[in-house]
Amino acid sequence: MEPVDLSKRLQLSFYQRDTQLVARELLGKLLVRRVGDELRVGRIVEVEAYLGPQDLAAHSSKGLTKRTRVLFGPAGHAYVYLVYGMYWCLNVVTEAEGSGTAVLLRALEPVRGIGARTQGPGLLCRALGIDGELNGQDLTSEELHQVDAPLADPALIVAKSRIGVEYAKEWARLPLRFYLAGNPYVSRS
DNA sequence: ACTTAGATGTGA
DNA sequence: CACATCTAAGTA
């Protein structure tokens, strides 16, 4: 097993910044999930930024509801929701409380303890055992957190339009999906 | 490449 | 009621 430094856990201040910046900087970082005494670790290779109530692709564009309560809450917490009745999606809440901004984690490169596919937001959650129970979870917690790690080559970051948001009019076209070019674990090229 | 099914919570 | 930050399986 290759050595991995899990000591530098990302703090709340990391998340309390511009959403697109957080999205870009999350590439290469490690997502750590603890299930019982088992650790599952993956390197983030694909994310999407959701920019708040004015962003028609963001759930916060529907306003503050029972579902979006966590999304409008403080940064550094997990916004987890069910999509298409079958798959869970994990987002990290960003910026100031009330901003309704978040970054969707779309794909991981397996690092340790991951035995299932992680290319795509639904598969990622299934592989890590993430469901609605973790909605609102503090992302600096033992159960679920992220760890700083160097990104070998920042020039590999590509920005394209987000997936599955065609209904969002002009917002659907903005380059808010970020991924590592050529990485085989990205959900689509 | 395109087509469709699958399951269910959410908001209108 | 229509649709959703998706995936798998089918046809070609």
TrEMBL record:
Instruction: Name any Gene Ontology BP term.
Output: base-excision repair
Q: Which HAMAP family match?
A: 3MGH
InterPro entries per the UniProt record, alphabetical: Formyl_transferase-like_C_sf (IPR011034), MPG (IPR003180), MPG_sf (IPR036995)
Citing just one GO molecular function, the answer is:
alkylbase DNA N-glycosylase activity
Q: Which EC class, in a word?
A: hydrolase
Report what the protein is called.
Putative 3-methyladenine DNA glycosylase
One Pfam match, given by its short name, reads Pur_DNA_glyco
The record ties this protein, via SUPFAM superfamilies, to: FMT C-terminal domain-like
The EC designation for this entry is 3.2.2.-
State the family it belongs to.
Belongs to the DNA glycosylase MPG family.
Tell me which UniProt keywords the record has, alphabetically: DNA damage, DNA repair, Hydrolase
